[in-house]
Specification:
With 397 residues, the chain is α/β, with parallel strands linked by helices. It has 15 helices and ten strands. The protein has a four-stranded mixed β-sheet with strand order 2-1-3-4. It has a four-stranded parallel β-sheet with strand order 7-6-5-8, sandwiched between helices. Strands 9-10 form a two-stranded antiparallel ribbon. A hairpin with a 6-residue loop joins strand 3 and strand 4 (88-90). Helix 6 runs parallel beside helix 10 (221-235) and helix 7 (161-171) runs antiparallel to helix 8 (183-192).
């Protein structure tokens, strides 16, 4: 069973062993292996790196898969971190290029400029995507190394459920699924409702061209698990469901793995972090019905019935799954919560506009030069998103 002290020990050990962090003693190569990277050939690139590293006996090189690096048009993307250089991002890498990177960059400290391309990070600020492209999403220890589960520990050991809700209300976090309802207020409604309660995550994401939630789950699944456990503590729920579309096989695989890891580490189940708190999670796979992105249809589908919206009120915080009080937020909303608990509401309030705090993740697609995933502060002009981050419309249109 994990304790706060054990979390600190894992964090320190992993930062050193995996070459994460500033005091890096070895070299770390990360290959973007989200759906976008895999579709472009990232698995073959990863295997080429692995083969060449073994062949050359480079014992101090750590090779890791990671989630979406953001600039999907340049996949497969690879980032190299060495002790004596800044991070170098290589784009459109093939297995042959991977072998050359090992020979020239790792062997002779020569950056291969022809494999790089300047990437515009202007305006971007990562909160929900903070670990995507950095950690290996299939290793619990790497999530812990980046302060993972410390927000849950803080919640269980230092805060009352009411204090958690008040902190969220103060932060101004609104639901990122489209409705924009204040998250803390939703949790408060459920907390004062009586009876058995549930926590739900909407990972159905049926909008054409949208891949924000998928990318978070592929790159940082534990952030959502941690947030849902915090939500359970805050409203008095001991069970949660993640409703995810079956067309997201990579996200499903990594979520299943992360849930199993959390169970084995004592971060799900009974007596979490040595406390009396109990919380468990299950996945429910959606069949691709667009209507099940609507919260009441989604919950009816979780019950095993045909997903059909029902009139509101009563709202899910009063009458949700099986007629019980239920908190339902989407993936992106949950991904903000550990950071708000860890750094405080005032920290979150410093980003965004007067009425909309924090950042928003967008999937840039269609007729635009720079397709990919971005996270920007609320209030960023749409013109800057299209022309500065997106590079504008092809052929100067």
């Amino acid at each position: 069973m994990l304790t706060l002290k054990k979390l600190d020990e894992i964090q320190e050990q992993t930062l050193a062993a995996a070459n994460l962090g500033i005091d890096r003693k070895g070299t770390r190569i990360v290959v973007g292996m989200a759906t976008c990277g895999l579709a472009a050939g990232a698995k073959e690139v990863y295997e080429a790196f692995k083969e060449e590293i073994v062949k050359r006996g480079l014992a101090r090189v750590t090779l890791a898969q990671t989630g979406c690096l953001g600039t999907c048009r340049l996949e497969p993307m690879v980032e190299v971190y060495t002790p004596n250089q800044e991070k170098v991002t290589y784009v459109k890498i093939t297995p042959e290029k991977a072998k050359r990177i090992v020979a020239d960059h790792l062997g002779n400290d020569e950056i291969i400029r022809e494999y790089t391309e300047e990437i515009n990070l202007e305006f971007q600020q990562r909160i929900t995507l903070r670990n995507c492209g950095i950690i290996n999403p299939e290793l619990l220890d790497e999530y812990i190394a980046m302060d993972g589960y410390k927000a849950l520990a803080k919640t269980l050991l230092q805060m009352t459920p009411k204090q958690v809700i008040e902190e969220l209300k103060k932060s101004g976090l609104r639901g990122r699924g489209g409705g924009g309802f204040p998250t803390g207020l939703k949790w408060e409604f459920a907390a004062v409702s009586e009876g058995e309660k549930y926590i739900c995550c909407n990972a159905d994401e049926g909008d054409p061209g949208a891949f924000m939630d998928r990318s978070i789950l592929e790159g940082d699944p534990h952030s959502v698990i941690e947030a849902m456990a915090i939500a359970g503590y805050a409203i008095g729920a001991n069970m949660g469901y993640i409703y995810i579309r079956a067309e997201y096989p990579v996200a499903v695989k990594r979520l299943k793995l992360a849930i199993n890891q959390a169970h084995q580490a004592g971060l799900l189940g009974s007596d979490i972090l040595g406390t009396s708190f109990e919380f468990d999670l299950e996945l429910r796979l959606g069949a691709g019905a667009f209507v099940c992105g609507e919260e009441t249809a989604l919950m009816i589908s979780i019950e095993g019935k045909r997903g059909e919206p029902r009139p509101r009120p009563p709202f899910p915080a009063v009458k949700g799954i099986w007629g019980k009080p239920t908190v339902l937020n989407n993936v992106e909303t949950y991904a903000n919560i550990p950071q708000i608990i860890l750094h405080g509401a005032d920290w979150f309030l410093s980003t965004g506009t007067e009425r909309s705090k924090g950042t928003k993740v967008f999937a840039l697609g269609g007729k635009i030069k720079n397709t990919g995933l971005i996270e920007i502060p609320m209030g960023t002009p749409l013109k800057d998103v299209i022309y500065k981050l997106g590079g504008g419309i092809p052929k100067g249109k």
